[in-house]
Design brief:
It is built from 13 helices and no strands. The chain is an all-alpha fold and about 300 residues long. Helix 1 runs antiparallel to helix 2. The longest helix has about 40 residues. It is globular, with a radius of gyration of 21 Å. It starts with a helix and ends with a helix.
């Protein structure tokens, strides 16, 4: 176990370095590097989500700093091979890179580099794949319940009034439709910035994380940190806050035992805490705007 912790320490330091190289701001490095949530879940608990963050940061680094889409796609495929949510970013990366080209050409590029992505993604599976059972594992994972709001459905609603599969399929359908039309709009959008696209992508990752995953675990929130550089001030505050709330909720969960029933208090704490932080952040934003407005009036008066 010690060797794995040392490896994750190295990955953590690499992530800190990449965040600084990409953003050129120490605040983002400190926000990630000294975050108790990341230190506990990423290093102490040795979760492979640290490698997902590393590969996502490498993908961002190569597309922004090195202008190399091929290597960026390779790292994105490696991240997807570990946690398949990362595929959400693929069209945003490709369309951003070819933002100067016309919509039809962008679509051709998406198909072309999408094939490259699939080839790289498939390579690790070729060593041991024998049949379709490997892919069916994704469906089996999605059928598990852990620490998500779906536990509340199983506890307080009886089938066929409301079922986990019904809610999950409905949300998945809504997610797919919104994602599809977002990509279509992006194909035809004239002005495209990396910051703007990463904001959109992060909202899709949030939706996937909190609404689509039935077996949610607190360390999955690490997925949100690689894109924090390009988020609004509210999200920059909210992401570390929700990470710490999830850590507190997980502490309550572990105190009472690791049975799935204890995931319900975890879900309530996470939901109520996150909602409370969102309300606080909105008030902070409102106070800042009021303060700025007053300052502008004073400035005009002089």
């Amino acid at each position: 176990m010690l060797i794995f912790k040392l490896v994750n320490v190295g990955v953590h330091l690499a992530n800190c370095y990449l965040i600084y190289k990409i953003s050129n701001k120490k605040i983002f490095t400190l926000l990630y590097g000294l975050n108790p949530f990341v230190l506990i879940e990423g290093i102490a608990c040795v979760h492979n989500d640290m490698f997902v963050a590393l590969f996502l940061l490498m993908a961002c680094y190569f597309i922004i700093k090195k202008k190399n889409l091929v290597i960026s796609i390779i790292f994105l495929a490696m991240a997807t091979a570990i946690k398949y949510f990362a595929i959400i970013l693929l069209p945003f990366f490709i369309i951003y890179y070819f933002r100067e080209e016309k919509p039809l050409k962008r679509l051709e590029r998406c198909i072309q580099y999408g094939c490259l992505f699939l080839m790289v993604f498939a390579i690790p599976y070729l060593f041991y794949i024998r049949d379709g059972q490997v892919l069916s594992g994704l469906l089996i994972q999605q059928e598990k319940l852990a620490k998500s709001f779906y536990l509340i459905i199983t506890e307080y609603f009886r089938e066929p009034t409301l079922s986990v599969s019904t809610v999950n399929h409905f949300l998945l359908g809504a997610f797919t439709i919104i994602y599809f039309f977002t990509c279509v709009i992006l194909l035809n959008q004239k002005k495209i910035t990396f910051r703007g696209e990463m904001k959109k992508a992060n909202y899709f990752i949030m939706a996937f994380l909190f609404l689509l995953i039935t077996n949610f675990q607190p360390w999955y929130i690490i997925w949100l940190f690689p894109l924090i550089i390009w988020q609004s001030a509210n999200n920059i505050r909210w992401i570390p806050q929700i990470a710490l709330i999830s850590e507190f909720a997980n502490g309550v969960f572990l105190t009472y035992g690791e049975g799935w029933q204890n995931g319900i208090p975890f879900t309530f704490i996470l939901f109520i805490g996150s909602l409370g932080m969102w309300i606080v952040n909105q008030k902070i934003k409102k106070n800042i705007l009021i303060h700025q407005k007053i300052e502008r009036r004073h400035y005009k008066a002089y």
